[in-house]
Structures are given as structure tokens and as C-alpha cells.
Amino acid sequence: MPVNRRTALRGGAIAAASAALVATARPAFAAPAADPLKKIVAGYRELQTGVNRPSPERTAALKNLGRVAKSYYDSMSVSGEGPLWTDLPLGPGSDYTTSMYARLRAIAVDWGTPGSTLSGDPKVLDGTRKALELIYASQYNPQVGEIGNWYTYEIGVPYYLLHTLVTVADQLTADELARYVSPVKRFVGNPNLRANNPKIVETGANRADKALISIVSGALTGDTAWIRTGIDAITDVAGGGAASVLAKLDRAAGDGFHADGSFIQHDTIPYPGHYGIVLLTALAGTIHVTEGTEYALPDELKQKVYALVGDTFAPFVYAGALMEPVRGRMLSREGETAHDIGHQLTVATLVLARSATGTVKAELSGLAAKWIREGTYAPFLEIPDPERFAPGPDLVATPGIEFAQEMLAGRVRPAPIAATHRIFGQQDRMVHVTEGWSASLGAGSTRISRYESINGMNLHGWHVGDGVLYLFLPHAKGHYSDAYWPTVDPALLPGTTAKAGPPGPLAATPLTTKAHVGGVRWDARHGAYAMDFVSEDGSLSAKKSWFFTPAGIVCLGAGITDTSGQAVRTTIENRNLGENGRGTLLADARAVGDSSTLHRPRWLHLDHVGGYVLLDNAEVTALREDRTGAWRDVDTGANTKGTTTPNTRRYQKLVIEHGAKPVDAKYAYAVLPGASVVGTVASAFAWRVRANTPVVQALRLWDNTLLANFYSAGTVDEVSVSGPASVALGRNSLAVSDPTQLQESVRVTVRRRTVEVPFKDAFGATKVVSLR
């Protein structure tokens, strides 16, 4: 089983420590007595092993988890004459070290779980102790050098080692604990800095991880100074707070949380859907293990942690899964689909709710209950396949199930679905939530990278930041988790305008040359978003707008120009219908075959998906095809690589053809998620396109509200602007934003009245002006 950076225990068990064998000079960590160090160790064991709350779901999970742990144990050799596992060779800088510790962790925690397959077996304990020594001597000790990815030595292996040690701590002497923790001391002795390059100050998720590792390691070895260093690292006491993981940055991009709720890692990648949750998980773990001790976080800091769930993460959760545009390169991981990381968020939220009180506890519990109730594609309380959908990463399996049932037993009311339109200017992301469906966009700019493709991951990611329109529908909750990324045509992602032909080489984190990406929020149900698009090679450019309403999204494109000579296409839809998927496609009331060229259709409808209305004349190619790919095609990372198993999925493509070398081509269509045939036909008259040019794209809604994106100074209907702006105009108010994030202000003239709207340090935020 491939072990990835965060979810190595998809196939591991996690369980509660059982009765210990008494031995002299062995520290007693069995119960959280008054000693704060014992309480920390016991608390961290609980996060691995749970609270032994019986239920049929726990029993079923333990059976499946134990099956995998036993397979690891049965195939493990501790003779010392070779590797622990034949498929994981030993050696300096081995790409397999993380996997070795992950498998050992699975065995150890299953051994400690009451009712588990390996529970209390003395032979398993003996094998675990021997394996700890062998792997210490050959792979991870204070003398080894960092070879390859620094993360393996400074975070990945330390976490799995600590998970193992806290589970069997009562069976080890103080000297043994000190020995096995000694490499952690070398690599994470100062959680503020990168061990292999002390000039690098740790930020974001990496800092939070190292803080928790320091706290638990210090507790295991009696090193109280190390515990305090870990606690202080959270707010960066050593650096005067400059790298505090709880600071809200008031600037564009940069690692950490931002004032508008954004979260960035690796400087330019929106990452609420991975690193942000990693950080939240570490903070939840820190609160949990230190609660009731002298090391407990102050209430003010805990309240800031609690608030992150609703502000940064919840807007991007649909049906218990994280939306693709905030998952960075992780969308290519077989073992970390949107639902996997959604489970991790749910567990972190449950752990936080256990320490919260009052309305905060109710809000956190309500969100977790909502995600559990809606997550029917990958049910949270079930782990039928231990290699998939085990809630974690560090808080996995039985703890997640037990904490959830503990919460649900209190008859918590799930949070309601609330209409939301929210723009996160500091990470160039937006989200549109309705009671029936949700949407988001993947965009790149001079601030935010088109994509991230590092460490052998996201190998088909050329266009994920080129204006992809992601739709999340109630009848297709597993759409993006169901082998989507290894099978989808990466050159025809919905919403993008791209060239045919082979893509260029992948970069690591490429920015674009255009700053104009962003939009305006009108209210909870309406907004506009714009993108001044240019292809990575610079040959193709376009102005692209999306106008969001409760019924659907109107998509406009103008100024589409290309010099490469390749065919240029705009993709309306490229829907994963699943294996052997069905569903009739209609065009103007006639059924469409598997491959058709549609001449100027007025509307289309796809069963169980929704409708599409063409708002100008267009040639549309409709193609239904089966596509086959393996996860290894999109992820070859050393510890994350996907399997080579072929997956075949059926796709429905709808593509507007612009031809070769288009000049000032355009498109206009509406996407109506969940619409019926009748609703699709009727909606053709719901909007009026007022402009679709390289200067301005605008739409008039049924109530006369005007939504407009200006790429330069210009006029549409009764609105004129002095420079680039996104504008929403109603009867009595005006909403304006600067998508370029470069202007001090914009002058807007409305109905012969001129207002100067300031934008200094607004970072794409919407400003509202009363016209009364």
C-alpha cells in the first residue's frame, strides 16, 4: 500500500492501550494521573486509540483495520538478516522509511486496542519492540543524514514513531524511550527552524506539526523544556510572533491564515484542503493533550483556533468533502481524495468540540454533524476498506468513530445549509453555495500559482488554475473522488479555454502574468468573478467572466485570441458519469448520440446533472467516451505514488469550438446545476447579457440588478469606471472590488453620480456604497 505524506494509516489500526506488563524502570503512562507529562502521553494515546466506546460501527472498523495490521505483522521479519518487509528495502535515505514506520504503527496500535485482532498478543509486542530497535539502528537515529525530502526526517517519521511509542510506552524502559526519541530531538529539537537549513523559519502547518511533536516527545522523555519550546512555537515566541500559526496576515499570499479567511502554504498555493487541515489537526491535538495541565493553551488562543473551522474550512466543504480548488497538488493522491481530507477535518472539529463550551461547542458539533449526515458517498462511521476513507490523519479510525458517536448521542442539531457567496481575495478563490448545489473556481494570477506540481504529484495539472468551474451536485457526491483525476481529459476541464495538442512541460508553482483575477459579492446568492487569462506559453489569451445566481452560472468569454495555430476550445462540461455511466443528453429536445457536432443549439440537458443554455451562436461538440487511467499516471511520489490499477470512467464532454488562430472570439452560456428540462428551457429568458467584450462583460438579472466585470476603464448601461473593477449595482446600493489588487481607488459613475471607492490594502475585498 502506498503511504502518503499525511494518510499513511489508511491501512493501519488505531486503538486504546491495553493492560501493561510490569517491568522495573518503566515509566507508567497507563493513566493520566496528576503528572502533566503522563497526562500529555495518555492524551496523545487517546488520539491514536480512542476511548473504547463500544458500538457496532467500532467493531466493524476494528475488524477491517485489524485485517490490514495483521497482514503487516505476518509479513514482517525481525530476524535482523534483512529488511522488515521485503518490498521496503533498507538503506540510507530510503524512500521507504516512512512506510516502514507507518506499518509498524499500524501493528502497535492494533496490539493496544481492546477487541482488536492483535490485542494484547505478547508475540506482537515482542515483534514491535524488536522492529523499533532494528529500524532505529538502520534507518532513523541521531547519526543519519537527511537525504531526499526533509519532511521525512523532521515531521513524517517523527509522527509515526510517536504514535507507536505512546501506544507501547508502558512496555519500554525510560532508556529505550530516550533512545528512540533521540533522532526526533536531533531533527525537531527546535520546532521554530528547519533542521537541515536553520535559516528557514518554519511556518504554517510545518510549524504546528513540529510544535505538537515537541510537546509529545518532551512528555515521553521528561524534557519539560522541550514541551515549553513546542508550546511557544505555536505563537512564535522566539521570533516575536512573526511566524505565529494563529496570526491573521493582512497581505496577499504568503504562508498562513489571512484576514479574509484564506489559507496559503508554499507562498502561493491555496491550501485549506490539506495543509490548513494539517495545521488545524495539530492545534486540536495540542489543545487535547495539554488540557488540564500547566501547559494548556490560554482561552484566547483556543477561541482563535475554534473560529478557524467556520471561517476558513467550512465554506469549502460539500457533502463532507473538501472542494478541489483548495487542495493543491493533493488532488492527485489516490489515498487522499476530497472525502479523505474531509474526514480529517471532521475529526479535528470533533476533537476541538470536546474542549469547547457553550455556543462554540454547539457550532463546532453542528458542523461536524452536518458533514457526517451529508457525507453519504464515503460514510464517516464506516471503514469498509482500511486503505480508503479512514478519518484522520493522526486522529484516525476508531477515535474518529467514537468521538462522532459521543457527539451525536447528545442529539446535536446539524448546521443548516445556508446560501453563501464568498470571495477569498487573498487566495484568489471563491465559493458559491445554494441549498441544492455548490460551485467554486480554480484560478491563477500574479499572486497565486496556476497549480502546484512537485514531488512527483499532480502530473496532469496543466490547466487546474486556468478558470476551472467545479460543480458539486447532490446526485454526484463522489464525482471528484471517483478516479476523476487519473481519467479526466486534463486539456478539457470545465470552464477552461485551452488549446488542443500536447501541453508544455510542467513547472513547480507557476504564476501567471496577469493580476486581474477576482470579483464582487452582491449578496449571499449573487456575485461576479473575472479572470484575465493567458496560457502558460503566452500564445492564448481571453477575458473570462462567471456570474453566479441561485439558479446557475452565466459564463462569458471575449477577446479569445491565439497565435499557436492549434485548435482552441472552451469546455462547457466534462462530467464523470462513473463506470458505464448513463444519462440521456438532449439538445433542443432531441437525443444526442455518443459523438455529435451540434450547430447553434439553444439548450442542452444531461440527465441527473442539469441544463446548459447557449446564449449566442456556437458550434458545440458533444462526445461521450470511456477514458482509462491509473493513479500512478498523476502521482509518482516516493511515499505517495498511486497504484497502477487501471480505472475506466465514462465522461460527457460539451465543447465550444473556436477553431485555429481565433481573433477576438467569444462565448456565452449558462450552466444550470440540477435543472429539469422544463427549467432549462424556461431559463433561457432569465438573463440579459449586456456586454461581452475585452473591455467589459456584464449581465442584467431578472430584478434589474447589474453585474459587470471591467478589465479597463469603460461603460456599460448606466455605469462607468475609471479602471479595472468588478461591479454590482442595485436600486439603492453599489458594490465594487478591484480584482487586480493594484489600484489605490476606482472612480465609479452611476446615474450621473460619481463616487471614489478606496482600495488600498483591500486585497480584492468588496466595498459597498449606499446610493440613497
UniProtKB/TrEMBL annotation:
<dbReference type="Pfam" id="PF02278">
    <property type="entry name" value="Lyase_8"/>
</dbReference>
<dbReference type="GO" id="GO:0016829">
    <property type="term" value="F:lyase activity"/>
</dbReference>
<feature type="domain" description="Polysaccharide lyase family 8 central">
    <location>
        <begin position="421"/>
        <end position="676"/>
    </location>
</feature>
<dbReference type="InterPro" id="IPR038970">
    <property type="entry name" value="Lyase_8"/>
</dbReference>
<keyword id="KW-0732">Signal</keyword>
<protein>
    <submittedName>
        <fullName>Polysaccharide lyase 8 family protein</fullName>
    </submittedName>
</protein>
<dbReference type="Pfam" id="PF02884">
    <property type="entry name" value="Lyase_8_C"/>
</dbReference>
<dbReference type="InterPro" id="IPR014718">
    <property type="entry name" value="GH-type_carb-bd"/>
</dbReference>
<dbReference type="InterPro" id="IPR006311">
    <property type="entry name" value="TAT_signal"/>
</dbReference>
<dbReference type="InterPro" id="IPR004103">
    <property type="entry name" value="Lyase_8_C"/>
</dbReference>
<feature type="domain" description="Polysaccharide lyase family 8 C-terminal">
    <location>
        <begin position="689"/>
        <end position="746"/>
    </location>
</feature>
<keyword id="KW-0456">Lyase</keyword>
<comment type="similarity">
    <text>Belongs to the polysaccharide lyase 8 family.</text>
</comment>
<feature type="signal peptide">
    <location>
        <begin position="1"/>
        <end position="30"/>
    </location>
</feature>
<dbReference type="InterPro" id="IPR012970">
    <property type="entry name" value="Lyase_8_alpha_N"/>
</dbReference>
<dbReference type="InterPro" id="IPR011013">
    <property type="entry name" value="Gal_mutarotase_sf_dom"/>
</dbReference>
<dbReference type="InterPro" id="IPR003159">
    <property type="entry name" value="Lyase_8_central_dom"/>
</dbReference>
<dbReference type="InterPro" id="IPR011071">
    <property type="entry name" value="Lyase_8-like_C"/>
</dbReference>
<dbReference type="Pfam" id="PF08124">
    <property type="entry name" value="Lyase_8_N"/>
</dbReference>
<dbReference type="InterPro" id="IPR008929">
    <property type="entry name" value="Chondroitin_lyas"/>
</dbReference>
<feature type="domain" description="Polysaccharide lyase 8 N-terminal alpha-helical">
    <location>
        <begin position="61"/>
        <end position="365"/>
    </location>
</feature>
